[in-house]
Amino acid sequence: MGMLSAFANPHRFLALSHWLAPLFYVVGAALIAWGLWQGLWVVPKDDYQGGDIMRVMFIHVPAAWLAMASYSAMAAASFIWFIWRHELADIAAKAIAPLGAVWTVLCLATGSIWGKPTWGTWWQWDDARMMSVLFLFFLFLGYMALRAAMDSRQKAARAGAILAMVGALNVPLIKFSVDMFTSLHQDASVITADGPKMAAVYLWPLMMSGLGHSLLFGALVMTLMRAEIWTRRAARQRARLLAGA
Amino acid sequence: MMELLPDLGKNAAYIWACYGLGAFLIGGAVVGTVLKARAAKAALKRMQASDEDAA
Amino acid sequence: MSPKPILSAFRQALGESWAGGAGALLPLGFFAGAAVLVPLGIGTEPGMLRAVGPGILWVSLALSSLVTLERIFQADVEDGALDLWLQAGAPVSAIAAAKTFAHWLTAGLPLALMSPVLALMFQAQAGIGLLTGALIYGIGGLAFFFWGGVGAALSATVRRGGLLIALIALPLYVPTAIFGSMAMRGAALGDTAPLLLAASTLFALAAAPFAMAAALRLAAD
């Protein structure tokens, strides 16, 4: 609870993120670079996984991980805000949404590019993972559009929190229904890049890339949160100024 | 310069497209985020300066 | 808590949606129009129409629900009815559920009842399947209306919120659309698809009223 209360206080958050965000940027970028070097130069191609094209996984799989993790984080922050009304939780949810959407698009686009030489098509309706991530993207879009349509910060926070929680409640059902939908078409030959039989030579660069993307994502969220805190302070200052004048 | 790049076989174009797109999107997110934070901080500074002027 | 505010909201919603849209004629016309556009767009080959027909009807049903839901809560915000419920301590989730149900009765159920006619136009076999089809469209439509109601409640204070409702609700429509069209095709899973559809509709009935109530409390502030 001590750590959590540090995050509940904007002042302490600013002090913490002042050094934590740069650290995450540097370590995240270094890990991504290492994973990139391993993935493109060092690891051997895996003919079982379609040859060189599997090298795409060192960006695709971290993007898929972040697409899911970021929506979960946004829903968790929304829940915390809705129950305890910690302003910082709303600031976090607001910051996560556009960044989560970026990584979700990256996941879809790299999956699509990977699909072309592998399946012979840019878009595979029968692939449950692609469909689930696509609907995740729409959930992010709806969240951002709803917040943008509200006329006050407080309303944006409340509406956003309700929608994020409704979305999170529906994600398992969406996932289940999409799995069921795609299992009707067994002829689709889906490669299992994230299957259990992955050799250690791929696993390490993959995990390090995943960690690097996560740290970079965390750094970006912190930076956006700092921007939002400053913006809200400036707005309060302006209101004070107008009230005093 | 060419020998610095790995030989990625017949699907090299697809692989480079993925990483190029990743660099573009993530780079864009970093630049946009940092610029937004800078603008927010500058706006707060301006506001605080005008507050002190008023006081 | 007395059921009076719930009943009166239900009656009022029935009246509004019945009178405000020329009875069930407007949603029916929209539903039929949306469905009939498709053969004009993709061609009239009977085998193809038979294959895509159930799917077209699902999409038309989803679109019709979105169109009819746009103003379901806006009037309550504007004329102060919402404030009155809140001041009286009325159960907002039950009122929201009653209103949404009333809209389904006047704008969703008629579409399900009309679905056999459209299905025949899409070259479906005449028979008992048309009636079970109507039942399936009715159950699925109920889920559409309740999730769409969440979108409508969230955007009740937004002017021209129609597109916002659509963007919010469409991902929530996915399970119903999938289970619904699987149930219609009677494919692979046999009898489980209608059960899954019913279960996901029950889930919508259980969860959506609370989200609508939370959103309406926000709209009243």
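The radius of gyration of chain A is 20 Å.
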